[in-house]
Amino acid sequence: MTEQLNRDLLQRWDQEDELAGFREQFHLPDNLIYMNGNSLGVMPRQALARAQDVVGREWGNDLIRSWNINHWIDLPQRLGNKIARLVGADEGEVIVCDSTSVNLFKLAAAAVRMQPGRSKIISEPGNFPTDLYVLQGVEQFSDGRVQLHTVEREQLFDAIDEDTAVVVLTHVHYKSGSMFDMAALTARAHEKGALILWDLSHSTGAVPVDLNGVGADFAIGCGYKYLNGGPGAPAFLFVARRHQATLQQPLSGWFGHANPFAMRDDYEPAPGIERTLCGTTSVIGASVLEVGVDLMVAADMTKVRAKSVKMGELFIALVEQRLQGLGFTLVSSKDSAQRGSQVSLRHEQGYAIMQALIARGVIGDFRAPDILRFGFTPLYLRYVDIWDAVEVLADIMARGEWQSSEYQVRTKVT
Amino acid sequence: MTEQLNRDLLQRWDQEDELAGFREQFHLPDNLIYMNGNSLGVMPRQALARAQDVVGREWGNDLIRSWNINHWIDLPQRLGNKIARLVGADEGEVIVCDSTSVNLFKLAAAAVRMQPGRSKIISEPGNFPTDLYVLQGVEQFSDGRVQLHTVEREQLFDAIDEDTAVVVLTHVHYKSGSMFDMAALTARAHEKGALILWDLSHSTGAVPVDLNGVGADFAIGCGYKYLNGGPGAPAFLFVARRHQATLQQPLSGWFGHANPFAMRDDYEPAPGIERTLCGTTSVIGASVLEVGVDLMVAADMTKVRAKSVKMGELFIALVEQRLQGLGFTLVSSKDSAQRGSQVSLRHEQGYAIMQALIARGVIGDFRAPDILRFGFTPLYLRYVDIWDAVEVLADIMARGEWQSSEYQVRTKVT
After folding, report:
1. Could you read off the pLDDT of B89-109 as tens digits, one per residue?
2. Do residues B373 and B367 touch, judged by C-beta distance below 8 A?
3. In the record, which positions carry N6-(pyridoxal phosphate)lysine (chains A, B) (predicted)?
4. Which of A283, A284, A414 has the CB atom closest to B261's CB atom?
């Protein structure tokens, strides 16, 4: 970033921004700069109307008939097919259901079952906690047949071997924002006969993903971050077509049956991606999620990525200019090709500084023990917002606001 | 039911009904008699406002801060403690999360793990399909350590033996409405050293349940039937306090961790019921569910049950009077003590008859191959509604309306 940065320049960037029109599709509270869309995306304006419609009309008036007349029965597939377009998957390869954690359990357990002679699940230490916890659950319930091995990312490539059943990695790291080379690691896994499962929670809607382009086997992802699906929105999962006919997943509930309403005693998995479903669709959550997905599908992911990269570079440049010598270090890679849509800083007073920032209306978040995270969501964040956020941060540091006792006590859960 | 039944008499019953006031708390579409609350409960009027509030204010305005200021973090426990009062459980023994199917997997797998020397899971044929399917999943992923045995209910008592790890039964049968003697079967399971897991999907909010009174080990239940929580509402589960410290469930996601936001690599289960949580709470669905739960908690379950029984007896008496010789047989028990809050009829033209009924505004449902189900929801159904429903049914039979070709083709999914 070589240009002389100032607020006027950034206003011009915003005026010239081809994605600027999306901002008015979102509800952005006054006096707030929201840099936490990597944790919980903001509310699309239409989401409120959609919530009213699914609750008041579809449930309230149409009641049980909505399974047919309002197409509740197809909701997981319909949404899945939309998300497929964001991650380089084909029709019938993605479906919306349950939570990211539950979906990881289904696919990790299924992957292990597809590899009867292999005993290793490989992941990395410091992966998003639920990924490691769920894999520990898969390990424990395998009664010793598979073991989870966590390998530092520098050694990952070499650690994937002929005994590896499945590699489970998060494409963009939740804390550092570091991004794996999905193509290289997928190729490596396949070279060794291993399967690979990508967690796209911090990728989908933020960085281009081409699951079929790289030949990925499985993926999971989150509905409430960059897809702006609402708090606790249903998640999604991907199974490459070539695996669908043989995939056996343990959570074999009735919505995964070939003919759920035949109400037979014996489970017979649906022929396609539907076999990964378990219980009844959370209709309200999925309906609200669809609004966010529709907005993301309407955006050009190439432009989203270009703006995201420019925002990240701008933030790093401003931090370097304005926060020199104040104890901040850059955690994320300076190389945009290795960074998702967030920048993380380390500071030993990270918790207190983030509380002070939030009190001033700049919402990022904190991840223990010392990480401040700032997410860039090109559909609703402006370049001037980044300028203003760094100004506030510099001011907090200059005034020592973070030293206030109210920011020191850790009362927040997230 | 010995009184001479007529519509005037039933209007008097409605006037004298102590639960009548609850009806106005629900949105009941015009010209509809809804006897399908056992499948999807109707919308409480406040549910629409609650949906608007959680979406528009809590998500839209407060965003990520809602985990703290709007208490999203405690939602599973808060709702669980309310539902506990409906099922005879104590504070900290019930929690709201995921779907009924997912929760069954967690607890059935955990129960099997608590019984290392025992190889049988016992259930009954014709149990609700998802229960059998999920248990088949537990069986399959145990690699031969446990097998599912389905035993006809007459032989169940004797089938529970020293090799039984866990008995999994649905308290009120989804199709017939038959109700198990929960106390007797729980005692029998314990006598043989087995654990017991009750599916309360068709019980909670419909019939009194006393989990701790009978000494039950585990239970699961549904949010969208008699709790009126909305389509695909989150489900709940119960773990008796005595089992909580040792319970290991396979879906060990981050919300089940002792300290989720410490973001450590190793899973450490939360000390209490929270260890059954997996992924992020579906906040919108759970918030809407709370409205239905609050209404049910406000009702006296003894009165709910008394009205439910009276409605069931009324329906059976009217069917006997008005539908003699038309091919209907009663599937549900005539003994109210053995029946939940629904009455099922068998008719070889059941599908077409139900379609004709629905077309005339009487909503029951059909379960293959030949069952018509009629649910009684004392909080919003009137005695005159039952009179009117049977009148319509008799009229449909007299006119042969069900023979219309449009009702013969099976296009409906549910």
Report:
1. 999 999 999 999 999 999 999
2. yes
3. 225
4. A414
